[in-house]
Amino acid sequence: MKTRERMEDMGKRIFALTRTELYLSMRFLGVALDSLPEKLDLSTRTVGTDGAYLRYNPTYVMQEYLERPEGMGRMYMHMLMHCVFRHMFAAREHDDMELWDLSCDIAAESVLDSMDYPVIWRVMGDFRQEWYEKLQGEIGVLTAEKIYHYFSTRKRDPYLEESLRQEFSACDHSFWQRLQNEDPKNSDSPQELPENQTANSDNDGQELDASPTLTAEQADALDKSWRENAERILDDINSSGSDASKETGRLTWLLTLQNKGRKNFADFLRKISVVREEVTVDMDSFDYGFYMHGLNLYGNMPLIEENEYREADKVEELVIAIDTSASCKGGLVQEFLDETGALLSRQENFFKRVNIYIIECDDRVQREVEIHDLDELKKYSDGFTVSGGYGTDFRPVFDRVQELRDSGRLRDLKGLMYFTDGCGCYPKKATDYETAFVVYGDAEPPEPVPEWIIVTSAQADVIQ
User: Fold this and answer.
1) Structure confidence by residue, pLDDT tens digits, 142-161
2) How is residue 430 annotated by DSSP?
3) Per-position b or e across 233-267, b if 16+ CB within 10 A of its CB
């Protein structure tokens, strides 16, 4: 018993030192590091995580620490990436568990290799670099889901997959399979959830016991907890300034993709909205008491009528730029136009009379359309043809917007939305109005994107 306690104590000390080094280098990971306590587990020969604990074999950890102490941070971060991107919770959605494990390892390692922190740095071999370039050329962003789809839709090569597994694997994924089992009685060593993880309750409000084999409800609770952790990490990175964003590599962009949702467009529209009166019935200020008293007293003569004006918080002035360069020609430009139509068709976001400029641009402004009534959008859409088709330079749009402001045609501009594939020359000077680059799908914009630019994703179902 004393031997086990000494081994457990040694393991905790090693991981405590590792967490401290990671925290000092990457303070934005504080909430994630606190959410993954370690636990001795002799069912594994190495280390692994189920999202609730970092489970380790003390013999393996001590040996690794003695032989390669600089590799502990990398190994810890690898498991942390699995948690942050919730790979273990998505495993149930994929039939081939071995292929999913490999895809998750490649995705996690690709993030770490893009980050610029000595505590997790390692030499990148030719084989690894070759496969990064190959996958990025084929699928773009290296998410586990995209990598899984890439391999599953091609002829399988067991020898190649084993070589990739040897290159990218860093932890034991066997704990993930236990998350898929809804019967907690199969576990022979029940464990409690960590205090800092979200606990589920039964109908009586009592906390459910957790174990390495979790119920579906407990797995969902852990999934939600790590989703919230990922959002916190992204917020902390964004609040740390441009230097932190550069050092985090692809982590920032992948977290943005993971956390994207309806709030992106809604938040942007709220930022650029203004408050003013518009002609519409304001039922909130209507007094039914006086109205009914007049009808009762005089028969058909109310003493008060509804207010014909009300204050509204909507968008009045907006510039929408559409990238018509060669890289966006064809169907993609039409998708940009469809997104624009979906955006402007939401009457609750805009006043009836608006001042909207639609600018088509490649490496120069090709066409400009001014819209004052949302009904005019249909005429523009029906007569739309692609203009340009050359290189991409975002700067002419911003120069043209400044000309419109100087001439008084744009009097109170609050925001600009640029639909693009993200490849082009960005302006260096920050604007005094909100600027959003709307990248279609999950394409990754080239680095670096100026920190004052909001990058979001264009999908019709996220526009409110």
Assistant:
1) 889 889 988 988 888 999 99
2) P
3) bbebbeeeeeebbebbbbbbbbbbbbebeeebbee
